[in-house]
Structures are given as structure tokens and as C-alpha cells.
Amino acid sequence: MGNRNPEKPQTPGAAAAPAKKKLNATSGDIFRMLAHESRRHQGLFWLMVAGSAGIQAANLIQPLFLKQFFNFLAQGSPTPAVIHAMFVIILWIAAIFAVGWVFRRMQMYGIINFESRAMVDLYDSAFTYLLGHSHDFFSSHFGGTLTRRVSKYAGSFETLMDSIMMEFFPMAIFVVGAVWILALRNLWLGLVLGAWVVVFVGFQIFVARVKQPLRVERSEADSKLVGVLADDIGNQTAVTLFSGVAYERGLFGGMVNAWHRATMRSWRADEAVWAVQDVLIVSINIALFFVAFWLWQKGSFSVGDFVLMQSYLLGIFNQLSSINRIMRRCYDAIADASEMIDIMKTPHAIADRPLAASLAVSRGEIAFRGVDFAYPNGKRVLRNLDLTIAPGEKVAFVGASGAGKSTITKLILRLYDVSKGEVAIDGQNVAGVTQDSLHDAIAFVPQEPVLFHRSLMENIRYGRRDATDEEVKRAAALAHCDDFINALRDGYETFVGERGIKLSGGERQRIAIARAILKNAPILLLDEATSSLDSESEHLIQDALKVLMEGKTVAVIAHRLSTIMNMDRIVVVDGGAVVAQGTHDELLRKEGIYKKLWSIQAGGFLPA
Hints:
62% helix; 10% strand
């Protein structure tokens, strides 16, 4: 890529994507996927098989009538009997065309319905399994790359089934049938052609397996390219405001160059195979003509036999000459599917235990019992944490950045599993209940709420998807969203843009609070829920939060003093452990971290 701007990364593309472990999906995994879908739709599958077989049977029978037709022509005497016989042959050929047309319709009906239904199943299974992965998994992968893998997974099935049912299977029937018929006509013709077919197909399989790493490399380069592109598009504002176009162009250019190198290696290998393939085709054609010419000299080969042989040879060459292209498409599809199957073979880091029960929340007590926790990167955050939040208690967590405050909320939500000990709600270990029931019992408002690129009505209703429009608007009013929503041209039907980019930070925060109000869960977690609000908005939200907190167990991570001072208890966290707790006034009377944070506060915030 011709980037004349001197600003570029030292190693383009090196930091563009997280390190990716080697794919462990195999061709066997892909074909098990094909077999599974074939069993799910057996009727359509066998209709495809019957249609494909019928088409090739018609293609094999037709040259036999052509042989007779040309033998009559070679006689040179159009007697009434010969003319009648040739007319009958023409009718037979027409009938064979008609039968082939019927079988073609059967084949296409089966393929269209089979593939579309199977692809629906594959999209659903890939989507469902992907979303079952953990918070850490999605934090470590590009969203654009994952989107691409789901799409390519279903698309690879279409490619493989088209190749198998419309090309490989019909090809096998025609080639075997043609060799068998020629062997019946003359054993030497059949033996020579059969041996050549074995050599030709064996060569194609060998080189296809040799070239597979090149195709996997190309597929991986393509996924990384799409991932970088999606990342830049999603962060276009940051790129523009930090004058990063030239820098990102360098990163993207590195990915494009890597894709180009991988693609050229794959295509050059294909060209070498095509060159050898052409030599093989010309060689067998000439060899069989010599054999046929020798048989004709002996009087055991007619003009019609020449037509028969050439018809079959042209059919075989037409189908086998494309075998490299077909196998290239198949291996590309296998490489594409492997990326998603690799994800689907990766066990979910956070999964429901067998026979997990639903969480039953009667009081809302939250307890940490001897909890140790370290992130997957090895960073240890919590150490032997023992803490209980009583039913209906409002607790705020404060501490320096990295002390473990946000980690506490993530463990309550079971975004991660603890390394030791347990987190329990009303005496039930959160690791032993279903994740859906756990999340149904908790309303969570994050520091940076992310919205769907859907309407405001849909985004708020996500808190309780069966809520009426009136209930949604009531929650919006309590969160003081209705004023800015009603000022929009489309009101509640306004689409908010990807991740809610069309709204200000404070507006997104209020939408998230409205969603939590609508959910009305017995446990409420607030992670800097008022951090994006100006003073006026915060004053409005405080009333809504008081209503929202009423009768609930609340855990708050906040630096705004107005939020902290109203809590029943403030818990000071440092180095992954609780070092102090009490009310605001009690903690100020003690020498410690909280008093230090209070003394250096600025603008109503505790330092992060």
C-alpha cells in the first residue's frame, strides 16, 4: 500500500489484533457438521441425491444413442428403414433430455430447500454458542472478526454442499459410468482411462492437502483484515480527533499486505497445479485416440464408437478439469468454517452447571466468603474477601483505581468465576444457579452504558421486554429521559446509532437508568452510574435513584460524594481486600484511605 506519510507503526498490523491460537478444528469436524445437517433434513437430502444421480444417468445414456445415430450416418444410404431408425433415436434423445430436465428440477428443489434450512440452523447454533462465551472472551476478540466468522460459517456450508451435491457426486457417477461403459466396449480403453482417472484425482487430492495451510493462512489474514476495518469504523471519531488516519492507514495497510501475500502464495500454487493438469488432459486424449485408431484399423471400432468415446472424454475432461477449482473452493470453505468451529469447540469459560437450579431471591443478601480472584492474564485482584451485604442494604465501594471495586460487581454478575471461595445470593452460590436467573435478579447500570442501534423505545424496553409502551415511558420519565426524548423529531422511535453514539454520555446514562427502573430487579448494581451526568442532570437522577433503590439490595461503585454520602455503609477496598467500612461520618473520624481520598477530593469526586 503506497503510504507516503512518514507516520506509520514500526510493525504494521502487529498490534492490530490479539494473538490467536492455532486452529484446532479439523476436516473431520466440518464433515461431521455436514452429516448432522443431512440427518436433520433427510427427505430433502435424498431428493438431492436422486436428482443428481438421475441427471448423470441421462448424461451417460445419451452418447449411446449418439453412437447409433452416427453409425447410421456413416452407412451413407438413407433408406426408409434407416430414416425411421434415426427418427426413433432422435425421439429417444429428446426423451432423455426431458428426463434429465425433471431430475434437474428435483435436484435444485432439494438443494434450495435443504441448504436454506440448514443455514438457518447453522446461523442459530453459531450465534447461540458465540454469545455463551464469557465477558473475557469478547474483551479479547474483535467484534468485526467474530461477526465475519459467523457469516462465513453458514456460507461455507452452502459452498461445500453445492460442491458435493452439484459437482463431486455427479462427477463421480459420470466418470465411473463412462469408464465402465468404455471398458464394456473395449477393455483396453476402459483400463487406460480408469488408470488415468486414478492418477489425475490422486494428484488433485495430494496437492489440495499440501496447499491447505496456504488457504488457512489466507482465511486468517482475511478475518484479521475485516477485524481491523471494523475496529477503525467503530472508532472513527477517535481516529479523526487524534489525527490517526495516517497511523490507522499504516495498520490497515499492513493487514492488506499480509492478505495480499497469503493470497498470492495460494493463487500461484493453483496456477502450478493447473499447468500440470492441462498436460495430463492432453496426454490422455492423445493416448486414447491412438488406441481407438489402432482398434479402427483392426475393424473393431466404428465411427459411432469414436463419437461415444469423445463424448465421454469431453464430459470427463469438462468435469475433472474443474476439480482443482472445486477443491480450492471446498478447502477455502473448510478454512472458513474451521474458524467458527474452533470457537464452538472452545468450552465456555462461564457455563451453567449440569442441572443448575434457578436463583430464588427472597431477601437479596449478597455474601463473599473467602473469595480469591485473579484475571485470566494472571493479575490477582481479590484476596480472601469476606463481606456480606444485608438484604435491602445500600453499600458503596470506594478505593483507588485497580483496588478491586469493579471486580466485585463482575463477580456478583458472574462475568468471571472466583478462583477460591464463593459468592452467594440468599445462600445460593451464584456458580450453581443458571446465569439467566442470576441476571434476571440483578439490574446493572455500568459506567459506560452501551446501547443497541435500535429505537429508544426498544433500548429502554430491553430491561423488561414484555413491558407496554406506557410502562417504558413511565420509566423514562422517572429517569428524566422524557424531556430530551420528546424533543427529538421521532421521539421514542429515534434510532440511537451504533453503541448509542447519537446520544450524549449523560443521555446514554439516563437511558441505562431507565432500563434498570423498568427491570425493577431485587438487586441493583451501579458502577459509576452518574459519572457522565452534569450537575443539573445528576440532581434529577438522584431522585430517580432513590426511587429505584427503594426496597432493593444495592451495591454502588461511585466517586461522586453525593452518591456515597447517602449509602448505609461505605466499604473501602485496597489491594483486593476490605480495609475499612462504616458510614461517611464514621470513616472521616478515622485516619485511613477514605479520609485521605476525602481530603484530596476535587469537584465532588473521589480520585479514580
